[in-house]
Amino acid sequence: xIEFDNVAIGYGDKIILTDVSMTVPDGRxxxxxxxxxxxxxxxxxxVLGLLPCASGSIIVNGAVVDSLNREELLLYRQRIGMVxxxxxxxxSMTVGENIGFWLWEHTDMTDDEIESRVRMLLSFVGLxxxxxxxxxxxxxxxxxxxxxxxxxxxxxxxxxxxxxxxxGLDPFTSKSICDLIRQVQAKFGVSSLVVTHxxxxxxxxxxxxxxxxxxxxVVTGDRQVIEESVNPFVRTFLSE
Amino acid sequence: xxxxxxxxxxxxxxxxxxxxxxxITRFRSREVLIQMDRIGVGSIPIVFLASLFAGLDMALQFExxxxxxxxxxxxxxxxATSIIRDMGPVMASLVMSARVTSGIASEIGMMKATDQIQxxxxxxxxxxxxxxxxxxxxxxxxxxxxxxxxxxxGLIGGLAIAFLAAHxxxxxxxxxxxxxxxxxxxxxxxxxPVVFGFxxxxxxxxxxxxxxxxxxxxxRTTTRAVVAAAVWILVANFLISKLLIxxxxxxx
Lengths: 240, 252
Hints:
The complex is a heterodimer. By secondary structure, chain A is α/β, with parallel strands linked by helices. Chain A has helices spanning 40-48, 70-77, 95-106, 111-124, 140-151, 171-188, 199-205, 223-228, 232-239, and strands at residues 2-11, 14-24, 29-34, 53-60, 63-64, 80-83, 159-163, 191-196, 208-213, 216-221. In chain A, α3 (95-106) packs across α4 and α3 runs parallel beside α5. Chain B has 9 helices and no strands. Chain B has helices at 2-25, 29-39, 44-66, 75-113, 116-122, 127-164, 170-180, 183-209, 215-248. The model of chain B has no long low-confidence stretch (mean pLDDT 91).
């Protein structure tokens, strides 16, 4: 479960978001929507402990993120599945090494066991044949799939986070990535946060939705709440 | 300005301190070997070529200056002393800084721009552990090896000029070289490349880790890193020379 308790967060003295209070229960996916530069990804950085809260707190499965020291933070992050906007795959490693990296770092698994798990994860995302390829040899959609496989390497993640997972992809590939996010959700049953500015993709993957505008969350709720909202920003977003 | 300098020194020191800690506590042999190959083996042709021509040129210049004084017989000793104490390590390091410092700074800068550094942090891996420590260690190991091998090439270049232009017999040249192989000279030639190897890799990592996003910023950062490494190598060269001359009480 992820809880935002009256959070204000930003970069140094520049506060991007204030009064953020919401809860993402286990097994639910919250989609954060908003225009570019509104601070959607800032919330993910808060959950990851990459940005401290100026006030309030972010609590993940009972742990107050800002109270963790450096070592605790590294341990905490080991159990977070994160998919970056462009995948952020390590370009000096093959696809297999990218996915196996977490396992090499944080488990005592043998090379054979790791390869077996890597192949299983690649099969899950439908890219079994790419294990020896380098990221530069993959299309945008394939990179996102590999990034999702890499984020799934921990067998028991606390939460799954997705930063603009479909940005820049064609509609067909976007839909396949959304379906994959749904499958991951069904497999792990943990809280997920998805940042996007695409409403169609949001409704495909989300259970709950929140809109970020002018440094605040303007509406938070399920699809019905969103569709019935009278907030002008949300109405504009829905009509686009 | 002063605050920025203090902050930079603090950040650099902290990075080096953490890298040293990781090198001791969790040695990444695979990464270190990869970096030794990239930094060291990959630099062999350019370092050897630069050292050879440095030796050729130095012997040529000394021969012109020494001939009128009838001191050509000392050419081997003079060339060897210059190469082992100063020119060899400095030449190899400056050539390496153009290749290695720029390579490391731009690589890390691009990793930062494409969120790969942040991905490491998110996966619970300290980038200093995975990225910085292996590169600094590889620089510390490979720079002395390359520098000493480069010294040999420089001496061979000097021999070519001694033999062909100054008409000095090879045994006389090598006997002069042997005279130059004193303890102070060899300590000079061994200590400097280690320090220079540290400078050119650590400076590259520092600038790379602080690079902003985008190709332009990565380019600027790379340029800054190469300039800073070159300047610090020259400063360190002077300081080490001064320190060792004071220590031995003689220029060797």
